[in-house]
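Tutorial handout. Part one gives the primary structure; part two gives the three-dimensional structure as tokens.
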Amino acid sequence: MKNVNRAAFLGFRKIARVISSAVFLACLSLALVSCGAEKVGADALAFKLKNGIPVYYKSVDSTKIASVIICVRGGSMTYGREFSGVEDLLFNLMSRGGSEHSYDDLRRLSHEKQISIGHSAQYCGAYLSLSCLSSYLDQGLDALLDCFLRPSFDAEQYNIMMTECDQGLQSMQNDPQSLLFYTMNKEIYKGHPLSASVAVLPESRENLTRANLKERYNKILDAKRIFVVAAGDVKLSKLRRVLEKSLGTVAALEADFEEPQIPPLEIKGPKVSLKSPALAKGSGHIAIAFAIPGASSPDLPAARIAALMYNEPLFNIIRTKYGACYTPSVSGGFSPAPYGTIFLYRVSDMKNAASYIPEAEKEFLSGDIDGKLGGFIKKYLSSVYQNQMTCASIAARSANALLSFGDIDGFDKIADAAKKTTSADIRRVFKKYWQDGSRRVFEIEGE
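Part two.
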């Protein structure tokens, strides 16, 4: 009897899946017809406004949340180091108010209706984001579009923002670790198209006036740079009508927007040594930089997993065996031409600590890579994607994929490649980037 019931239950589940798929396809077809959208990528829809601005949509199961993101291609790779932080500050200020929504109005919407306006900036672009209950989407879109199309550039909010910025810069200059990484980034990218930083730097601070933020805004308000990503409980036909009346009126300033060509990064140069009164004499931090795979390199997932795996022998040798530093670690940037860092934090033996790294490399390559690989693949996927199942995070992930790769499934493809990583891939990328590539050493110690 139990087997009969189980068979009936499994049969019901199968029928339910078929019905669910049919309902999804019916809804998809309706959405396609109602807004003139077409399917793109694995599971997204897209249409274009009358001025050519693309709008992408990702469905999210069983949610009453709506997310809409207005993205602008460009980013820190399109301006010089002397304007580092200009888009981060610009979109920060835009998120603080438009001509019809003051900063206090936005706070009230956030408190009373959970309508949240956020911002983000990176090397390849920036965006304003909206997240709210779908029942408040009309009000949320009004606020988002007001902030994007008619930013107030409020003087009081600008001053508050710059005070926060100055505090961050002062903290950076007083913190030995932050000063070390600032110096390393400046030296490694000297003369390179990625020399500008997403964040404000001491040498760019004075150039980030309200007038220059407005000038940057006028440059990027370009239909050839803009695209929109929506996710969750959104009616596409209605979204299209709203966007056509607003973003659809933005003019194209360029025939087409082309990202600059980014050459590979060369790591070369002498060791850089800094002093800090905040550190005890004879102790400090050591950072060793080396080139790693770029955002679009097929070596990227294997190198990221190798870095996670390498942390264990690095800790075993440098911390546990020799006690040369408090915490050794491996990290890496994400861009077309990034660098990785072996970082030795709170070094007690500045003279010898780095000399133990080859022993850690040998232990890593002679260890049980095959046996441990599956667990580290899962760890990598979890660390990258574990917080990306909410409506807002799905929208942000799609927006970032389009900015980084021009492909809404870009990060999903990296995840798929990571799942196929073999121990031979790990050994190959480790040898190529960690052992055979050139390095440059940066250190800071107490006076």
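Part three, for discussion. Confidence is low (pLDDT under 50) at residues 1-10, 12-31. The two ends are 81 Å apart (CA to CA).
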